Amino acid sequence: MVTGYHQFGDRIAKLLGTPIDHLKPGPFTQMEATLDSFHLSDGKLFDDLIVDEGQDFKPTWPANLLRLLRPSGKAWWLEDPLQNVYSRERIPFDSWVSIRSEANFRSPIRVLSGINELLVLVPPIVSAIHANWAAHNPLSNPRKV
Questions:
Q1: Which residues, other chains included, contact 70 with Cβ-Cβ below 8 Å and sequence gap of 6+?
Q2: Is 43 in contact with 72 (CB distance < 8 Å)?
Q3: Measured between alpha carbons, how far is 129 from 85 in angstroms, rounded to an integer?
């Protein structure tokens, strides 16, 4: 499943039989409240969680998603502080392994390569936009992250 945080809250509200009325005030607050209290049974927990645009998250949101992950599941948190359009504080993950790059890659090709290598996705995720560039760039090696 690929979804945005609020879209996920909207979908869950519909599944729970309490759809959000987008014409009334506060639909985003309602979507967030839905996820604040949502839990899955053990048999339906996710194996993997990939959060992109983590710099846009509010402090309570990661816990709402991480509790949907199996105890043996893997979580990947991707963020670009240079795109912090909401001026939100960085969410600390003190016990997590962190990989940082000072380079600002607007192309997701290296991120996609890393996800493909780490998750062994079949078929792999491919960035069609950058496939031609990568094939002709001698500095590009999509297998190394």
A1: 42, 45, 46, 47
A2: no
A3: 25
Which helix (H) or strand (E) segment holds residue 29: the answer is helix 27-37
Element (H, E) at 50: strand 46-51
CB contact set of 75 (below 8 Å; sequence gap of 6+) = 48, 49, 50, 51, 66, 69
Question: Is residue 74 helix, strand or coil?
Answer: strand
DSSP state of 76: E
- Rounded Cα gap, residues 130 and 145, in angstroms: 16
Tokens of 74: 């893997």
Residue 139, both tokens: 């500095």
Query: In the beta sheet, which residues pair with residue 50?
Result: 76
Phi/psi of residue 56, each to 5°?
-90, -5
Which uninterrupted H or E stretch holds 35? helix 27-37
Span 20-66, pLDDT tens digits: 999 999 999 999 999 999 999 999 999 999 999 999 999 999 999 99
pTM over 0.70: no
Over 3-22, what HEC string results?
CCHHHHHHHHHHHCCCCCCC
